[in-house]
Amino acid sequence: LAVAIIVGTRPEAIKLAPVALALRARPGVEAWIWCSGQHPAWASEMLAYFDLQPDLLLDLPPRSTGLAQLASLMLSGMQAAIEDLRPDVVVVQGDTATAFAGALAAAYAGVPVVHVEAGLRSSDRRMPFPEEAHRRAIAQFTALHCAPTLKAADALLAEGFAPGEILESGNTVIDALRLIAPLTPANDPVSELGCPLILLTCHRRESWGAPYRAVCAAARRLASRNDCEIVFVVHPNPELAQVARDLLSDCPRVRLVPPLGYPDFMHMVRRATLVLTDSGGVQEEAAALGTPLLILRDTTERPEGVEAGTARLIGTDEEVIVASVQALLDHPATLAAMRIPCTQYGDGFAAERIAAAIAARWKDARAPGGG
Ligand code: UDP
Prior knowledge:
By secondary structure, the chain is α/β, with parallel strands linked by helices. It folds into two domains: 2-171 and 347-361, Rossmann fold; 197-337, Glycogen Phosphorylase B (Rossmann fold). 45% of the residues lie in helices and 15% in strands. The chain is built from 15 helices and 13 strands. The strands form two sheets. The protein has a seven-stranded parallel beta sheet with strand order 3-2-1-4-5-6-7, with helices on both faces. β6, α6 (150-158) and β7 form a beta-alpha-beta unit. The radius of gyration is 20 Å and the shape is globular. Uridine-5'-diphosphate (UDP) binds at residues 10-11, 14, 173, 201, 233, 259-260, 262, 265-266, 279-282, 285. Residues 22-358 form the UDP-N-acetylglucosamine 2-epimerase domain. InterPro entries: UDP_GlcNAc_Epimerase_2_dom, WecB-like. It catalyses: UDP-N-acetyl-alpha-D-glucosamine = UDP-N-acetyl-alpha-D-mannosamine. It holds the Pfam family Epimerase_2.
């Protein structure tokens, strides 16, 4: 059984590494990692923490001019790879342009698609773009939906997908956390800090422009309290990085740091007093580790952390961000009450369930090397 695992971005590499390892541990299964070229350096760096590397890397131009060009280049690149190497199954993860193009290329070629982290849906009719469009589209091409939570499985059932096509696997990000736990962080940008540490990330497309500026303005005001430090892990996208530099580089209690290695970043999430983020993966990780979390979005397709009490959904209004953080810093008991590890995202063994389901479902596919 030959399985092509398609990764393009940092979260895909982190969340599919455990799946690649679990598949490779099974006799008679070959698992190839194909890197779409969406964020090749990041994807390779994250895979390396799991002792993995891409078996194939699509050669995209260094900066494509928007989602349509990116998706179309990846679609044709993956079509060629599928025709050349003929996997029996293609695995995609999440909601990126890579996952969408990979699923579509497989569907066009008649190769079954496994969707990891399937069934995430925003609770209201807003459809955060482009992620929700991608994941809803991918569902249409998917033979096996690996739902990370009960809610995600229910969402798929409600959309009419057959129970036999849905595996309630857990989220593989919890497996990734477990696997990297023994690694020692390479460096700690804030080892000397003694006061409350706020870890901030913001990069989602829906946050670009006014919301991002409001987040930066809120960080500036919070830093002026002089009793907390803000570590802002700035996304390298030039539009975002320049705004953060313009608005915050003269602010002594805000440290603008470049993206961190996975063990280093998780070390920061563990030790942070509070995490502010719009990232999907960081929402899951912080909630699972029990680090209080304010979600800088108007809606989330990961409500489990909010329901567990570890997370609050606060949006991107400057006043609301400042008031929400102040309320927690000024009331340590409320903050302490949010330190509840959320168990809903999984038990750390999702990848094994996914690998077992793939091996069982496609057991009659050709033997490795059998052509
Ligand atoms: N992450 C990391 N270093 C960083 C920031 C994030 O390793 O400096 C990891 C984080 O732990 C999570 C993933 O990257 O597993 C999230 O990626 P991102 O926020 O880019 O994507 P999203 O989860 O929103 O799709």
